[in-house]
Amino acid sequence: MIGFYTLLYKETLRFWxxxxxxxxxxxxxxxxxxxxxxxxxxxxxxxxxxxxxIAFLVPGLVMMSMLQNAFANSSSxxxxxxxxxxxxxxxxxxxxxxxxxxxxxxxxxxxxxxVGAGVFIGTxxxxxxxxxxxxxxxxxxxxxxTGTLGALGVIAGIWAEKFDQLAAFQNFIIMPxxxxxxxxxxxxxxxxxxxxxxxxxxxxxxxxxxxxxxxxASDVAPDVSLxxxxxxxxxxxxxxxxxxxxxxxxxx
Length: 252
Hints:
The protein is mainly α. It has one domain. The protein has helices at residues 2-16, 19-41, 53-84, 88-91, 97-123, 135-159, 163-179, 192-198, 202-215, 222-246. The longest helix is centred in the first third of the chain and has 32 residues, at 53-84.
């Protein structure tokens, strides 16, 4: 397992060495969203009974930040290694494709959780300290959500051959799915057609299930959200392992 631990250490150190860019910047961005949206809409919107709009925003912003950074960690690492040519130093050692995938996945989860914790701590300056209804649900959805996006980042990093392709993947898939997943609103405030569309967005279930852990209230049953998120995580992990096993755009 020394190869796995070494690769995991390398991937963890890679984002931590530039933590101002990879950790602090996303935290500041999320807090700016909170500041702007809460200032504009706080007095006009109440989603759940007894829950202020600022409090409602917090779980969504935390989860959105975690998802985006988990994806960015694995995808950017792979595309940089491919373009600079140092991917060969990862492929040459006798690492199994499972160890390769696990190292990138765990590092992505770690970055996502660190960013999420930072965003949550930062939001305490805007909202009063409150009890959390279901902390285990929060942890479960945080790990599964970041794991899902970490696996998707591996797929995107393998598929992309240049930064433009990876940027297109992030701008036209990841960003729209996260912003249209109920971060800033409840889907029940949407017209019927868009409620139906939202139910086909897996990011919605990640954020809604995560929010349930805070308030004990959600737009869909948390069991349904857990099932959808778990299925996405398993499916994307299997696809990542298949691509790595075949050496798609890495060894061939």
